[in-house]
Amino acid sequence: MLEIRALARRLGPNFSLGPMDLSIAPREIVCLVGHSGCGKSTLLRLIAGIDRPNSGTLRLDGRVLAGPGVFVEPEQRNIGFVFQDYALFPHLTIEQNVMFGLRRWPRAKAKERTEMLLSLTALSAMADRYPHMLSGGEQQRAALARALAPEPAVLLMDEPFSNLDRDLRERVRSDTLALLRRTNTTAVIVTHDPEEALSTGDRLVLMKGGRIVQIGTGRELYHRPSDPYSAEFFSTFTRVPGVYREGSVQTVLGAFPCSLDVPDGTRAVAYIRPQAVYPSPVGTAMTGRVRSRSFRGEIEQLELDVEGLGTPLIMRTTQHVDVVEGKLRFRIEEEAVFTFAMPGPGDQ
């Protein structure tokens, strides 16, 4: 549906986007994710036609929208856009906002389409209200209905849930995804939230400094990151230096099996997720002294000082360590006994 080839945009002397390649299939939901300033919103503006690339080609369903000697204006692209602040027209009712992009449709058909989308977004009872009379979640749904009204080939959403509090954000995100699936909409969603990206997109496009770092499903990026940036973006780690020798990285915490195409003796770093560190019965070899502990409801996080390790080892556990057999009452400055859960097949 959307094909980007060697697309590039220079933005001053210190930043440029691309060149990059990206293909998005019909009905696919893709998340552009990365830290602020990595180029996510710039790429979205290039797709929408709000900005022009310096080079490369952009095609929508085979039609060239931007390329050498070609630039199709935004209103001619059949691309919908939901802005971060929703950008609803304050002087129009919700029904009038949704109908705004249907002015060239026959009135009866436009009315039918509007009523259908208001029903799908649970806004029928609010059709005569103005945007300021709606909650943040309701405004977001109204903006989504307005963007979907003209039946765009692709829908772009720039941080659409960032203005909502956590509980509301999760519910609105779930409802939005259900609506996109139901309407068979191809969508590109920008977010800086790793958890939101993992739970939203069919595929994730991780960006850094105007470049694409890795593309894949959420599970692929989480379990098989391509480099340290990809790994650390989606998870917290304790970095443990070591040496690669005989099929494992050997560290002060023990040997971690892995397959690397490097000579024995090469310096390496083991990345250990907090949830891979488990409280263990007395008798296991690994011990550390509790530096800090933080109760977080369903989990508890501890920082352990381990001899020979220059940084605290982070452990997260669902076991409430105060009440497990009396042996695992890890208090500050007390000794803690732990073990590791090794990655499964195909994980890193």
Automatic annotation (TrEMBL):
Pfam families: ABC_tran (PF00005). GO terms for molecular function: ATP binding. Residues 2-234 form the ABC transporter domain. CDD domains: ABC_Carb_Solutes_like. Keywords: ATP-binding, Cell inner membrane, Cell membrane, Ion transport, Iron, Iron transport, Membrane, Nucleotide-binding, Translocase, Transport. Gene3D superfamilies: P-loop containing nucleotide triphosphate hydrolases. The keyword Cell inner membrane applies. It comes from the Bacteria. Belongs to the ABC transporter superfamily. This is ABC transporter ATP-binding protein. It comes from Chelativorans composti. The lineage of its organism: Bacteria, Pseudomonadati, Pseudomonadota, Alphaproteobacteria, Hyphomicrobiales.
